[in-house]
Amino acid sequence: MEIRHLRYFRMLAQELHFGRAAKRLFISQPPLSRQIRELEEELEVQLFIRNNKRVILTDAGKYYLAECEQLLNNLEKAKQHSRQIHLSESGVFNIGYISSISKKKLSELLKQIKKNYPLLQIHLFETSSHKQLDALEQGKLDIGIVRAPIMRPLLTQVNLYEDGFVLAVCKDTVLVDNIKDIDLSSASFISYNSEYAPVYHQKFLEICARLHFTPTIIHECNTIPSILELVAYGVGIAIVPKMAIQDCTTSNIHFLEIGIASDITTRIVMTFLINNPSNVLLPISDLAYDTFK
Predict the structure, then answer these.
(1) pLDDT at site 90
(2) Which of the chain's ends, N or C, has fewer CB atoms near its CB within 10 Å?
(3) DSSP-H helix ranges across the chain
């Protein structure tokens, strides 16, 4: 018995007509009849009832069709998986990202990668831009989503989007809808650690200067969720990237526009090692670009 016997049998079972089945298989009718007869002889069962008007599956034929379908589907999956392994579409692919990006969009990207590369394991690393750049150069990350600028000659970069800033306040403690009604010079601020996120910290101070005050920073954190949690509990207020609004899960935070500093933004880019040998790097980077742009 050969695979073609199974494929011919399945096609005839679908069409229940020798002429139509032979046409779909791109063969003439006599070879199809011969292959079916050989299969029945080897199995020692009658799979079809034939007469001049129609072809009917026997009970044995119906059972064998179900088993045949499963076997052929498994063979196709095995072929696809073997090709993926051959093309390095399996194994591990490491993605780094800063905490302020949209987790909704990150989830969409992961789902699309899973759909296109079911054998590929994605490992995620939420960490600072600087640490991602080091990891990329060391070959520990395949793709990083970071805050520009990047001054690394071994890395290439693709612009994803520009992100502005908003003021996050606790609804229980700040009962205004306009940033002009807040005494920012006496407010307690929660911010990123200046060494952990220097670009963000620089933009934060630039916004404060535009608003003519020097911030009083009482707490520093390393992630946007941590900053927003402290804001929600009324510990202080924070200037955060606009993208953080999309992932904020608490209803106790109000985000206020910073109109006078709306032109102050940061550029979020995707970066990777120029000579990364992964065969899936460019396709996945295209998926990331389409998702985040």
Answers:
(1) 66
(2) N
(3) 3-15, 18-25, 29-43, 59-86, 103-116, 129-137, 198-210, 224-232, 244-247, 281-292
